[in-house]
Every structure is written in C-alpha cells, then in structure tokens.
Amino acid sequence: MIYITAYNSPDLDGIACSIAYSELINKLGKPAKAIYSGDLGLEVEFVKNFTNNFPIEKRAGLFEGDAQFILVDVSNPDDIDPNIKPEKVIEIFDHRELVFTEKFINAQTTIERVGSCATLIIEQFKEHNQTPSQNAAVYLYSAIVSNTTNFKTPDTNQRDIDAAEWVRGSASLPSDYVNQLFAAKSKIDTTNLYFALSQDLKIQTIKDKKIGIAQLEITNIERITTDLKNELENALFKIKIAEQIDLIIFQGVDVIEGNTIFYTIDEESSTIFAKALETQDLRPHAPLKINKIILRKSILPKLDRAMI
C-alpha cells in the first residue's frame, strides 16, 4: 500500500493534496490511501462539511513492513509521523525554500516555488490527462485560495492562478464561496485561540535553538493583539513551555487587508526575529504591523542567517 500524507496536524493544503493525489494514484492503477496524523483546523472542517466528503483516514501506530509513502506539502522528516521511515518515502511534493530532501534517499522530488502545493498536484492531474472528482476539486481549489490568501501572497504566480482556474471548472462552487471559507477560518475567540495557534505552529531547530512560529491567517487580525491580547500572551507562553521552545513569535496575516502582524513575549525572541525581519521596531508585548503579507516559510531561511 502507498500512503499519502502531509505533516502532523496538516493545514488545508496538506489535506487537499493527500486526498487528491491518492485519488490520482488510484486512477493510475496503484492502490493508495490518504492519511493524516494530529489535529485539523477550522478551514479543513469547513471544506469537510461543505463537501460532506472526507476520504482520508486518521492514522496512528506502526505501518506494515512493505508500506511506501508519498509526502505532500512537507519535506522535513522532523515534521512527519515518526512511524514513517525516511527510506520508505518514494515521492515528495513541496513548495518551500527550506527543504531536507537529502534525508529521503529513495524519493523522487518535486520542489517548486509556487503559492500552494495543491498547484503541483493539479499539474500532475493535467500531466496524466486526468480530471479530479468534484469533491477533490473543491479541496484543491480551496487549498490554493487559502494558501495564497486569495492570490495575494508574494509567492503566488501564474501557475497557481492557472491551476485554480482549471480545477474550479470541476468544483461547482457558489459565487461567495471564498468569503464563506475565510469567514469560517476566522472564527477565533477565547475558547479556541490556544488550539488554533497550536494547530498551525511551525517548529524548526536552527543552530541548536528550537524556534516556533504560531500563525493565523484570518479576517480582522488586529483583534487578536487587542481584544484577545491576554489570551494570546498566555497561549504563546503555554506553547513555549509545552514544546520546550527557545524562541517564539505570533505571526498573523489579515486575509482581507493584506497585512501582517507580529507579536513576541520575550526579549530574546524579539531580538532574533527583528534581525530576520530587518526591523528595529519589534519589541515584546507590542504588536508590529507591516503593510504587506509576509509568509512564515520566507522567514525561516532568514532566521538561519540572523542567528550567526
């Protein structure tokens, strides 16, 4: 069996790619199953309820000895289920600058700088003259719209636009679908802020420092650092302790206004992230607003240089 999966607690891009690529592999005559581990966020739940379709299995524990794996939206062995052995990975699709493909010695890799991994999966459908099912098309289109913040992020390119336009033809979506999706992922309050930050937390070890970036991409992002400021600080502190993180920052993207807010809770984190962001205005307990979208995946390579 070939298992197709993303990183632990995947976002919509990882879930969509797992579902759609397993569908394609099965169409091409190879038995494949989409799986995931961890928790799911609000946007995944929205698409799941919208389609009333969720052909992916939550998996825990050991795999059979002859199992093979395809990774989507991930290329770091530290981010995947520890039961997946890197030498069992046969293919990887990812769209990040900081990758670790050399650790997967038997994998064919497709690493392309596009806005969404879903774009790469759609291109695979086109290459094999196949069309995704309506539900898979909804997941793929939703992933591109979400990951590119409706085509506003700096890494969005024509390939993303073309892929989204092509797959939407199979999705049969209402005209206000994108607004519905963004509204659903923006339902953050005191009851779920900690979970939302934990679910979209990226942890990376750079130069012996364990770094965490907790991210939200929602509407009206400023209320997180105003109305929910105390809850935000408490959540970041709890995450830092629970995950034994050395440096932590909150990164919030406003999907409507197209700006980014950063927030730190300690001096060391502020100093290092300020170097990476090339600013002197990042200080603990004070939000820093930048009038453009800055992606988390673009910050991580800069941190490596900032920590010299």
From TrEMBL:
Record keyword GTP-binding present: no
UniProt cross-references to Pfam families, sorted A to Z: DHH, DHHA2
Gene Ontology cellular-component annotations: cytoplasm
Domain spans labelled DHHA2: 178-307
Cofactor: Mn(2+)
GO molecular function, one term: metal ion binding
Keyword field: Hydrolase, Manganese, Metal-binding
Domain of life where this protein originates: Bacteria
Residues that span the membrane, as ranges: none
SUPFAM superfamilies named among the record's database cross-references: DHH phosphoesterases
PANTHER family tied to this protein: BIFUNCTIONAL OLIGORIBONUCLEASE AND PAP PHOSPHATASE NRNA (PTHR47618), CYCLIC-DI-AMP PHOSPHODIESTERASE GDPP (PTHR47618:SF2)
Designated name of the protein: DHHA2 domain-containing protein
The species this protein was found in: Candidatus Brennerbacteria bacterium RIFOXYD1_FULL_41_16
